[in-house]
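Please decode residue identities from the backbone states below.
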């Protein structure tokens, strides 16, 4: 609701999304896309969840054997480091990002 109200007050909404959190499925990815279609943020971005050492996400991924070997001294943003119950590394890497139709229309004039 807030994302729809904010532009009326002259502010722009920027949204950030994390892909690959525990429990992520193709259905939850589609649900997020529907949310974007309904709210039309002014700007948005998405990145993969990264299970840094010492976090609960890492512990869960480690317990399930879902981690890729990672040397965090060579960490690269936008890389998948673990999978979910439903989405394997190939699935996650095939995700090309959410689309914001309103942003595309403004950028192309269509």
């Amino acid at each position: 609701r807030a994302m729809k109200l904010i532009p009326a007050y002259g502010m722009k909404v920027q949204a950030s999304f994390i892909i690959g959190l525990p429990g992520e499925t193709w259905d939850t990815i589609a649900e997020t896309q529907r949310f974007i279609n309904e709210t039309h943020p002014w700007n948005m971005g998405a990145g993969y969840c990264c299970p840094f050492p010492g976090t609960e996400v890492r512990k869960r991924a480690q317990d399930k054997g879902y981690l890729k070997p990672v040397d965090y001294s060579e960490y690269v943003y936008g890389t998948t480091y673990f999978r979910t119950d439903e989405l394997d590394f190939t699935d996650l890497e095939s995700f090309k990002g959410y689309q914001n139709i309103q942003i595309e229309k403004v950028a192309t004039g269509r």
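Observation: The beta strands are 14-19, 43-48.
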